[in-house]
Amino acid sequence: MAGIGGLLYPVKQTLYVRRQPLRSDREYRGAGYLCVLTKTLGDAFGGKKMDHMSPRLRAFLSEPIGEKDVAWVDGVSHELAINLVTKGFNKAYILLGQFLLMHKNEAEFQKWLICCCGATEYEAQESSNCLKEWCSCFL
């Protein structure tokens, strides 16, 4: 068991993500917040359990975007990644910027991905969900 801010949670059973202010230098930093992966705390994903997330989404949410290529975004296939790179969206943070420019409006972002980048409806939904979940954890 480990405790942060007076709350105890099992360290090895990780199912939910919750963000809270940093308490020490040893904790993981993400935009000034600590992302705590735990079974018992938080519902940063609206109660969505992490065991129902794809491995790509879980990997993407596990750390800040940094210099990740756009292909790291869950829902971006190889073909879509090529289309995005040719349009100048070669890094995940650039695609995130587009999502933020659209005021985190998932429907508008999905239409843009489909119309301008050649994404399928499924790819657009998964990509926008991935970026929305990342924002809820790190912003």
UniProtKB/TrEMBL annotation:
GO terms for biological process: chromosome organization. This is Barrier-to-autointegration factor-like protein. It comes from Camelus dromedarius (Dromedary). May play a role in BANF1 regulation and influence tissue-specific roles of BANF1. Keywords: Nucleus. It is found in: Nucleus. One of its GO terms (cellular component) is condensed chromosome. Signal peptide: none annotated. SMART domains: BAF. The keyword Metal-binding does not apply. It comes from the Eukaryota. Homodimer. Heterodimerizes with BANF1. The keyword Phosphoprotein does not apply. Its main location: nucleus. GO terms for molecular function: DNA binding.
